[in-house]
Amino acid sequence: xxxxxxFLDELRSRASLSQVVGRKVIWxxxxxxxxKGDMWAPCPFHQEKSASFHVDDRKGFxxxxxxxxxxxxxxxxxxxxxxxxxxxVELLAREVGMxxxxxxxxxxxxxDRRGELADVMEQAVQFFRLQLKTSGATAARAYLERRSLRExxxxxxxxxxxxxxxxxxxxxxxGKGVREDLIVGAGLAKASSKGGKPYDxxxxxxxxxxRDPRGRCIAFGGRxxxxxxxxxxxxxxxxxxxxxxxSLYNHGPARTAAGKGQPLIVAEGYMDVIALDSGGFQASVxxxxxxxxxNQLQMLWRIAPEPIIALDGDAAGLRAAMRLIDLxxxxxxxxxxxxxxxxxxxxxxxxxxxxxxxxxxxTLLDGAVPMVRLxxxxxxxxxxxxxxxxxxxxxxxxxxxxxxxxxxSIRDHYGRELKSLSWQLFKSRPAGSGKRPWSPGRKxxxxxxxxxKSSLLVAADVDVQDHLRVAVILATVLSTPAIIAEVExxxxxxxxxxPTHAKxxxxxxxxxxxxxxxxxxxxxxxxxxxxxxxxxxxxxxxxSPCVRKPGDVELARITLSEEFAKLKARRGLTAEIxxxxxxxxxxxxxxxxxxxxxxxxxxNRAERSEHEDKAExxxxxxxxxxxxxxxxxxxxxxxxxMHSRPKR
Length: 648
What we know:
Structural class: alpha+beta
GO biological process, one term: DNA replication, synthesis of primer
Catalytic activity: ssDNA + n NTP = ssDNA/pppN(pN)n-1 hybrid + (n-1) diphosphate
Number of strands: 15
Strand order of the largest sheet: 12-11-13-14-15
Keywords: DNA replication, DNA-binding, DNA-directed RNA polymerase, Magnesium, Metal-binding, Nucleotidyltransferase, Primosome, Transcription, Transferase, Zinc, Zinc-finger
Function: RNA polymerase that catalyzes the synthesis of short RNA molecules used as primers for DNA polymerase during DNA replication.
Number of helices: 30
Pfam families: DNAG_N (PF08275), Toprim_4 (PF13662), Zn_ribbon_DnaG (PF01807)
Largest sheet: 5 strands, mixed
Helix content: 40-55%
């Protein structure tokens, strides 16, 4: 339908936005100024306690500083009532007394027919309700009694019964003068393939009316009483009123309850929703016989920013959760996500609440896990990653899922979270906890020579200098956590013989996006309040420019680059010397001498760099003395090697 020029502007000017919004929110009288049309309230589109939702009545626009929802009166009605554009326009026009322009004859005819179908559906609701009280519904009433659905609950949910006959509802509606095309068009009857009169869609079933957000009955769900029936649950076929992929059971009441602060729970079926509602969880909905669709997901996000998906603890429930993850990943945005509750195996919300009460359900909801954790579980559970190829396969599978996310910020956060989980799964044993890594041509491990045991070189990874270098690195990262992403791999490989250093390293890697304050609080909570004080008390750390200038990313980048280079050079020299001493049990050769000379050159370069920045870092006399001892030991070893070579 086309609207004449100026109609919408006139509608917006007549409709007071604050009055339209005021039906859904409670204004914050401290922040609002009604005289100026400047109104504030908690946002009706996401759960919050502060008043971040702003309405400018004079301009006719609203904006939420939390979830960034914005629009005018028409947009607000569409979003809160889940209406189409023209339906929202008609609703507002009626409220302000504006006559709608003449409709296109075909559009008017379609609207009139939908109204007739809705009337037929209401007559069917009343028929099924009456049938539940008849003698033919004894088995149905017994079933409801076993499911603890007393008469009050039956009234609340308008539960009825479809009798076990071919034309019970058909004959009733025809007797009321309802046209045949309307009964079939409403999905209440099906045409006979044998040429007879149409027969009822629902027979010998407990009936659950399905209503749209405006309260109109648009379909039915029927639960079979015959255990041999092919379909335990049967929904109405799709009609002009009913699109099952765009409908939710208990949509309207759940939206109202969610607007009052209750968490939105998505269950699997009608009985689950009814059980949740009876347990105090009124913001509960269910899809209608199919997996959640993209349209339904968007509808859920219009009700609440983070619905909780509560699925049965069986294989089918888990499969449904995994399908939903793949559907949701491309649609994620800031403020739009999902959390998951997987119920105990063999139980649904109805079973759990009846057996253990609402508190058991609340405990599960409080522990609902974010979607990224369920994605991780799906890709890793029951799998063994004992080879580089399998680890690479996991990396690829995770990256493929992350790449589905269109929102760049969300994609980056997912990547970091999954990388952190991978690190926790694959993190290597602490340095020195096992044998040296295998390398081509390496001889089997042998006991070190007696002279090696007393050498400072045996403890090269844990000597004073390396201990201080690790301390400087950790302190630098903690004072400037923005650098973590650049040096994450180097931090993972950081040799931390000191248990406190190892805990600090692991904590940093588990929190790659934390601020300096967040890290400080985590350290105090997990390691001890005096940990940072002891770290900064080390002279090397106290004099580090990075610690004195926290947050300077460029300075941190330069410092870490130098410290990692020095550690790498020292480790290289140490490894060659250790292998050389083992090799001295046999005869030295040219290759051994060459390897040591190369390691010595790398070490000397690091030493020169150290002397160049000595004024800034002040290694001290003790550090210099250790360096001389190592150089003396190295020279002694080379001399020993040369004398061990056979004379030609």
